[in-house]
Amino acid sequence: MLLSQERNLVVEYGRKMLEAGLTTGTGGNLSILNRSKGLMAISPSGLNYLDATAGDIVLMDLEGNIHDSKRKPSSEAGFHIALYKKRPAINAVVHTHSVYATTVACLNMELPAVHYLVGFAGKKVPLAPYATFGTPELAENVVNTIEDYNAVLLANHGLITVGQAIQNAFDAAEELELIARIYIQALSVGKPVIVPEDEMERVIDKFSTYGQAGGKED
User: Fold this and answer.
1) CA within 20 to 30 Å of 48's CA: 7, 30, 76, 146, which one?
2) Could you report the per-residue pLDDT of 9-63, keeping only the tens digit for each?
3) Active site residue 110
4) In degrees rounded to 5, what are phi and psi of residue 66?
5) Radius of gyration for the chain, computed over Cα atoms and rounded to the nearest angstrom
6) Of the residues 6, 76, 175, 177, which is catalytic?
7) Domains of the chain in sequence order
8) Where are the beta strands (DSSP E) in the chain?
9) Domain Class II aldolase/adducin N-terminal, which positions (predicted)?
């Protein structure tokens, strides 16, 4: 099977999204790009992650053409393609409708550095303006907003994370959901204190070397 490893990983991480409470039903989507072959493996439209098999995962090139696939791709394939074109160093995209991150997005707020783990995204998580799902306008808003961050909130919609590998993008989605929850809870009590920008620069630098092969500080 063409891109069997990538297809199996999309199935695996789709189920992990459900298990981690990062989405429900058929919501959200994820993809992995094999740059050497010029093909993206992306979750199919409208299929429950628990029912998906590797053969259901759709292969597309970065011009939007479908290869070796029996199903329709996610309706959000456009912003996956746009992100891969804009960011040559990323090979995975995860899009969630996780509750707290989406709550922040529905308030049309960025997620600031209320906790140093925002460093998974950068110094903050920026907010892309609202556009109808699955449209070129949404893809344009995403790529115009994300810049060099590893995550972006979609106004009144959800969260996107990117990474060199699917594990990186998924970990970022999990951690940022935690930070979004902390932020919402802190706002309900008072005014959150934001980690200074120079400290976030140090944190991001430490993230690049922490652990066995780079990772987060506990």
Assistant:
1) 146
2) 999 999 999 999 999 989 999 999 999 999 999 999 999 999 999 999 999 999 9
3) no
4) -90, 140
5) 17
6) 76
7) 4-207 (3.40.225.10)
8) 29-34, 39-42, 58-61, 66-67, 92-96, 127-128, 151-154, 158-163
9) 8-184
